[in-house]
Amino acid sequence: MYVLDGGRISIASLALGIAKGAFEAAAKYSKERYQFDQPISNFQAISFKLADMATEIDAAELLILRACELKNQHKKVTLESAMAKYYASEVAVKVANDAVQIFGGNGYTKEFPVEKFYRDSKLCTIGEGTSEIQKIVIAREVLSKF
Ligand SMILES: Cc1cc2nc3c(=O)[nH]c(=O)nc-3n(C[C@H](O)[C@H](O)[C@H](O)COP(=O)(O)OP(=O)(O)OC[C@H]3O[C@@H](n4cnc5c(N)ncnc54)[C@H](O)[C@@H]3O)c2cc1C
Known about the structure:
Oligomer: single chain
Distance between the termini: 23 Å
Bound molecules: flavin-adenine dinucleotide
């Protein structure tokens, strides 16, 4: 269980990298792809997706940094690593999904990188304990304080 606590920070970091890659690809593409004589980033439906993606990526990174800081201090990180892993992996799947959507039909093909981000992100909600198991760990830890 001690090893899993540390491993979950690694999977959370993997998820964060995937999310950042998907976000960067989508943000760049949204400024290159023109529809109705303007870049699709001009459409609020697209820019609001990017705003959500950027916010959730930052939130995931902060959870990971907290878990890392505690781990470096050799403190118990059962709760913090489960939260970081659960949140970052779910964010990675959501961000990759939105990135595919922003790429439209191109996102579904292997000509562009986002379909791979989408496939790779899904591992992060499963390996080192599924999201359901993280929630069991988180609930057990928070409830033990009352
Ligand atoms: C690409 C990949 C690489 C992997 N690498 C490794 C590795 O290097 N080392 C290693 O040891 N393992 C590895 N795994 C295995 C991984 O850790 C397991 O797949 C994961 O823990 C889920 O276990 P399971 O597949 O047996 O699913 P199951 O336990 O059968 O779960 C199936 C579903 O039931 C849910 N579920 C199960 N129990 C509960 C419960 N008590 N309450 C609520 N829901 C529950 C799960 O959340 C899931 O949705 C890897 C998996 C993948 C996909």
